[in-house]
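job 3f2a | input accepted
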Amino acid sequence: MAGAVPVTPRGRILAGLAYATALFLAFPHPVGGRVVDGGLLAGWLAPACLVAGLRGLGPWRAAGLAFAAGLLAHAAIFHWIYVVTVVYGHAPVWAGVAAPLALAIYPALLTAGFGAGLAGLAGRGRAGPFALAALWTAGDHLRAFALTGFPWATLGYAQHGNAALLGLAPWTGVYGLSFVTVLAGAALADLVSGPRVGWPRREARAALGVVLVLHGLGALAALRDAAETDAATLRVAVLQGDIDQGVKWSPEWAERTLEHYEGLTRRAAAQGAAAILWPETAVPGSLTNRPELRERIAALARESQALLVVGGVGVVADGGTWRFYDSAFAFAPSGALLARYDKSHLVPFGEYVPLRALLGRFLGALARGIAPADVSAGPAPQGLALPHPGGSGVVTVGVPICYELLFPDLVRRFVRDGAEVLFAITNDAWYGRTGAPYQFLAMTAVRSAETGVWTARAANTGVSAIIDHRGRVRARTPIFQRDLLVADVPLRPAAAQRSFYVRHGDVFAGACWAALAVLAGLPRRVSNRESR
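job 3f2a | predicted structure (532 res):
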């Protein structure tokens, strides 16, 4: 870029390190008993540092630097994988150390793709902030489905605490948040290290102006979205049993686990809860082939006179073999088993081993206790139409289970199928006292903002929460404490209230892909100096 401030090799390394540091700090982490969340500052700085470090490099060198920076950043963010593999998966220490690095390769490859794409666009004079924002957003979208997807720490989640910018989520999904974050970061990089005159500087100023306008529009949308005083409500309780993962499937703990949840259920019923939500696999056994266990939960529903939605193991006989599912079971106040939802998007290497014929000789799934071998996937996300526990009619709920909450398109399909509220159930005990439970809560909050419905989140060891339709966490529990939350949750049943994102999906991400295709076909843009 003509007239740009030159970047030394040492400066590029420092920029890569600054990117890795800023991206790590852009997501919440516990420090000294407090949760530190630097997203509102570090979220903008991360892409700015990376863009500044990559400017002026050819495609291969840009891809190499971006890959190294992305690998370092995501390995640090994914440090909680050590707890999953070593503490609870009983893998050797070397495997726990290698696991975050191995997992980080996936997003690092996409970061490398961004670096190569930036260099390619720059060679055509097209690497302005808008083009780079589209390039990054396309990569974030790819993370949601390539190789089954793993969109943890997508950049847009750094803005989960930005109430104004969350106003974009019902239109664009989390991808709009990524776009605006990179738009601002790339503009800052151009203003700091780019040319002092010419179209690049004008485009950077225009990009920052667009970012400010979008914040204003988001704030206006929030003001127009008045409190839902006229909406029907459902009094919901979320239970947090605080069952340590190390004993969760121990036969000696089964009775104690049930007693804990029965006691919490009675407390919730005493506070008037009409619907009571247990976490993922809270029931220590199968409700489908253990009738005495199913009757025990049914009796509790009759006693509490509440709709019980409980996480458990579904078992189905299939031609002489057994198929195991990570399921949610809904019991009516009468004790009748109303419906069951089976988790449809499973955790690779956690609940099943991909390419088992090849890899199964060397690797096993970590989620022992649910199934002796691989867990099976349910057919598709779907709303559960249940009798309204507070009166006549029905209430349709969506019950995304744990890992499914990472996927925007999957969760929106619950609401498109009629869900008026999301009952999110998860078991975050696997993560220990790391940043993962808080990062997962942030992602769940963005799902509420995208779909425009409230979420009641029940997590075994926390963070359990009540989240409103704008993605604001209204109430939450501390982690690793036995606790419950009870709240009157508004229902949003009218089709007219469904967000654009629910109705149409990843249109914005598709527009970013289309914009990149158009840019690839445009002629090279000549800089001011070259034209003189």
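job 3f2a | The two ends are 15 Å apart (CA to CA).
job 3f2a | closed
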